[in-house]
Amino acid sequence: MANTVITIGRQFGSGGKEIGQKLADRMNIPCYDKELLDKAAKDSGLCKEIFESNDEKHNASFLYSLVMDTYSLGYTSSVYSDMPLNQKVFLAQYDAIKKLAKEGSCVIVGRCADYALENYKGLLSVFIHSDMEKRIQRIMKVRDLNAKKAKELIIKTDKQRSSYYNYYSSKQWGVASSYQICLDSGVLGIEDCVNLLEQAVKIRFGK
Question: Taking residues 6-15, what's their average pLDDT?
Fold first, then answer.
């Protein structure tokens, strides 16, 4: 039987990462967020800093790729050496996601994981969203920002995530038809989102 992998797409400030971590804790399985970058860097031979600077961002400019490709010299494995930098980074993460699914059940936050595993039988793909005001309040508290700065950061981050997802996948970021389950954390709250997803896993996979 296939391992169970729950992928969490999320609007910035919706609490998607927290929901994913709490669900993983409940199920006693690992949750991969930034940890995925470490694995992708280790497996691919690419420099970790490149993954961090490209994390869920679609950096397509020629100048950026030229500079960062030069920076990556000496770290690049032969498998990725003939590709543009943004493709190297995406495919390294894509491969890392598939390896994690084979290794065991887990939760993976962001990074087009639902697309990488779209034909995987053990997949439950989720998108977490919330209204802007509630996200602003959350980011003000978590990042210690005023309302204006929090909103600017939300808009910027959502734009980056949307651009990244739409460019690399065959789907649209945040559109319900792109996912199996969409939850409004602003209406439901963090704990009820976790409860619902735990039930969904049991219904979907009998676990």
Answer: 98
